[in-house]
Write a structure and sequence with these properties.
The chain is an alpha/beta fold and 454 residues long. The protein folds into two domains: 107 residues, Urease, subunit C, domain 1, CATH 2.30.40.10; 301 residues, TIM Barrel (Alpha-Beta Barrel), CATH 3.20.20. 39% of the residues lie in helices and 22% in strands. The protein has 16 helices and 17 strands. The termini are far apart.
């Protein structure tokens, strides 16, 4: 894909590379979707001429956030289902709206969320979707929306093979599951210059058989994609899994040979010390969704303990139901505050830990740590500019602590993905936000009205 070359100059570059380098009065040169040069402005501007020049004076230049677990189409019902626990919310809201949602509604819900992610500084999202047998084409709507928005997206098509609490319309046979996975891999994986990825996985261990999990893992491995699923989200869920399998979720996946560097476990609220060791040993990643877990009162994942044990822990918004925000700044604040509080130790998790979770750890969870997650020569040009001149950043001393503890979504000024400017001056480029909001509002009203009639 041929993009215009971009020169970003006069900014403070937070590289998040292994050395933790910060380059004051720094510059980036971007060409063909990649960071070709990074260094002092005085040096870089002499070496390169660009089609587009961005003056980043007073701004922080850094890698974009990786929203490692979210549900984009849930934007259509956010604000509903307040004050319910997880299983009640699933039965009363989630499963009904996923049953009723059509392809057009899925497209506008996804596009709305993707634009929200971009405006919030996310350059990559892991988007988890539950299709029924009646609306399998909705997964294609998500892919089309990702292509249109310009965001980098790993679209996770989940499945339900069995389950007492799951409506019949969601239950698929192993043959149906594998056939649909082959189709979406063929049609979408690697499309849009590689921005679109298709990941696989059971919604939850409660709704799948070991045999199908093995077959899905085999298919994922053969196609270079990963496995992503909800895991050990609540005490009740953990008890049900232990009753079904006689062991914890991570132990089940380990014994099935599925744990690997391209395995992502979303939530991981309930996990034993042995399971933490298994995740660290196999390179599997956990995704902390602290905002949703807090509001649903699911519990607190032992993130500091996992980090100390060497588990890669990424950060997601989840963006579910009433708590349907795609705000990674809020997620970072919650991750810092809740894990400090639950440990009764302010040093249990640091601003650096949290920022890594939101960037490089998310890239690693996707197996893309060598391609994104830091500002380095040769990496993908997934870059954001954060305005440091706002009142709440003044005075400014520590870049990392300031960003995590003081930053807000409206501080994000510019977003670049794959070398293309998607937002500048907080204005989305090439897409009319008002049209998207209008279409999403109408889709939401139609969908909610149909659910209410059931």
């Amino acid at each position: 894909m041929s993009n215009l070359s971009i020169l970003i100059k006069n900014g403070t570059i937070l590289t998040l590379n292994k050395k933790g380098e910060v380059i004051k009065n720094g510059a980036l040169y971007i060409e063909d979707g990649l960071i070709r040069d990074v260094g002092l402005t005085s040096t870089v501007v002499k070496e390169h001429r660009a089609d587009v020049v961005i003056n980043a004076k007073g701004k922080l230049v850094m890698p974009g956030f990786v929203n490692a677990h979210s549900h984009s189409v849930a934007s259509l019902v956010r604000g509903l289902g307040a004050d319910l626990n997880l299983f009640d919310w699933m039965q009363k809201l989630k499963l009904p709206y996923y049953t009723e949602m059509n392809e057009e509604e899925a497209y506008w819900g996804a596009l709305l969320s993707y634009l929200e992610n971009i405006k919030n500084g996310c350059t990559c999202i892991v988007d988890h979707y539950y299709p029924s047998r009646m609306n399998r084409g909705n997964i294609d709507s998500l892919a089309r929306a990702a292509k249109k928005s310009g965001i980098r997206a790993a679209i996770v098509r989940t499945y339900h093979e069995e389950g007492e609490r799951i409506p019949e319309v969601f239950i698929e046979s192993r043959e149906e599951i594998l056939k649909e996975y082959r189709r979406i891999i063929n049609e979408w994986n690697g499309k849009a210059n590689g921005r679109i990825m298709t990941w696989l996985g059971p919604d939850n261990l409660l709704f799948s058989t070991p045999e199908t999990i093995r077959e899905v893992h085999k298919l994922a491995s053969a196609n270079g994609v990963g496995i992503h699923c909800h895991l050990s989200e609540t005490v009740e869920m953990d008890k049900m899994i232990r009753k079904k399998f006689g062991k914890g979720s991570i132990e089940v996946f380990y014994d099935l040979g599925v744990l690997c560097p391209k395995f992502q476990a979303a939530h991981v609220v309930i996990i034993s010390d042995r399971e933490i060791k298994l995740m660290a040993r196999t390179g599997a990643s956990a995704v902390n969704n602290i905002v949703t877990n807090t509001f649903l009162a699911d519990g607190v994942s032992p993130v500091p303990k996992m980090l100390r044990a060497g588990v890669n822990v990424a950060l997601g918004t989840d963006a579910t139901g009433t708590y349907g925000t795609q705000d990674m700044f809020l997620s970072m604040k919650f991750a810092a505050a809740i894990h400090k509080l639950s440990s009764m130790d302010p040093s249990a998790i640091t601003a650096k830990d949290v920022l890594s979770m939101a960037t490089w750890n998310g890239a690693k969870a996707l197996g893309l740590q060598n391609e994104m997650g830091s500002i380095e020569q040769g990496k993908k040009a997934d870059v954001i500019l954060v305005d440091l001149q706002n009142l709440h950043f003044t005075p400014f001393h520590d870049l990392t602590a300031g960003l995590v503890y003081l930053g807000r979504i409206d501080d994000v000024d510019t977003v670049i993905v794959d070398g293309k400017v998607l937002m500048k001056g907080r204005k989305i480029v090439g897409i009319d936000e008002e049209v998207v909001k209008e279409k999403a509002q109408r889709a939401s009203e139609d969908l909610v009205n149909r659910i209410a009639l059931k």
